[in-house]
Amino acid sequence: MTQAKKRSDQWINRIVGEGEMSANQFLANKLNYRRHPASQRDALRGSLNELGWIQRVVVNRTTGNVIDGHARIEEALSRDGAMLVPYIEVELSESEEKLALAILDPMSAMATADKEVLDALLREVSTDEAALQQMLSDLADKEGLLPVNINAPDEFSSYGDDIETQYKCPKCEYEWSGNPK
Fold first, then answer.
1. In terms of residue numbers, what domain contains 95?
2. d(C-alpha 37, C-alpha 160), whole Å
3. 120 and 98: one domain?
4. Lowest model confidence (mean pLDDT) among 142-146, 151-155, 162-166
5. How do residues 155-176 score in pLDDT, each as one tens digit?
6. DSSP conformation class of 47
7. Any domain includes 133
């Protein structure tokens, strides 16, 4: 029985430390099964460029292995191996580390989108990072929403409600002028 299961009235805080460490000092977990496609890496790089570090890497004090944040570390390494990366330290047994590694990302992926809230959010955000723009557009498309606040290409000489439209999507009723897709 793990330490966390022994107390039923509260969950045990397994976070035992925090800090910053050079990217080249982290120990990649050999059992990390997650692979990051180029589009995800581009979006991550865009997020780091625009926002900086907003989430810490998770390291197990018991083994020294990274549990979460491999891609963030790899991005830091691609710039400068000495770059400081923020992390939190947790204390888990080796078997608990394996369980955490197996469930963290898939558990996050189980979340579903509230389309109304997502649509409102997408109308409030903007970015100059092309990879983030693409990710937001893909997200809107996946959820059946129209992309909003995406920077228009330079070839759009003008825009506005007063411009005559040439085409209309029969599904979403989006109207545009220019080349049909």
1. 3-109
2. 36
3. no
4. 151-155
5. 555 566 677 777 766 666 677 7
6. H
7. yes
